[in-house]
Amino acid sequence: MKTGIIIPCYNEEKRLHVAAFLDFINKKNNFHLCFVNDGSKDDTIRVLKNIQSENPFKISVIDIKNNVGKAGAVRAGARYLHSRGDMNFVGFIDADLSTDFEDFDRLLKTLKTNNKLSMVFGSRAKNASEGIEKDTLRACLSKIIKMLVFFILRLPIEDTQCGAKVFRTNIIPVLFKRKFFSRWLFDVEMFLRMKKHFGKAIIVNKIYEQPLQRWVHMDDSKLGLKDSLEIPYRLVSIWFNYNVLQNLKPIHKEQIQEPIKEVFGLPAQTIAA
Fold it and tell me: Can you give the pTM of this predicted structure?
């Protein structure tokens, strides 16, 4: 059973821990790394191509020509991996490895051992261990965001925004068929889509929030303080879009324009439309 891991990248030329990625993927395992260059302005794509050349059968690179945000990058990676037809599980982690491969593997093992689950996701809040590090301001913002997210989802989730999630390939059409309204808060939209598709009574048995053993906030994160302060407004916008606008203006297939992208290191297949 092969598992694809999506790593969205934006201006990561000097931050990527190349050795860590290569050390992981060169081991005898059934993982496939899918790096997605999100219209970087630096030389990230060159670094990714060099990584891919080290193990072309277990690493692929998607080069999105114009920046679309983390939501669009993860969506492009998920749709590509789904189109390959050789993945049983797909997930994503952050390029800075704030969540490491060991924790991701723990999430995957939980998903594999419970056939009722469709998604397992990391949590920095649930039974937080000593390995979870946050700065004080972000901790306060997290509490505010948590209350708003609960109001929107009405699901017992403590941390929707952790950048480590893994899910069964068969729910990718549910999660990623349409574009996301938000460039960064798409995790909330993923849960909303699952809730609308399966219903609240069923989804609570299809998702599992698992405490992380380690997570460290990186100071040069792409999501700055200004962006963080805008999150409450963005969350309200998501609620409005899913509960009001979608009922008024259904999204037709012809309205969806996919970003221009190029794929390196795969069998020649057409990415699903």
Answer: 0.89
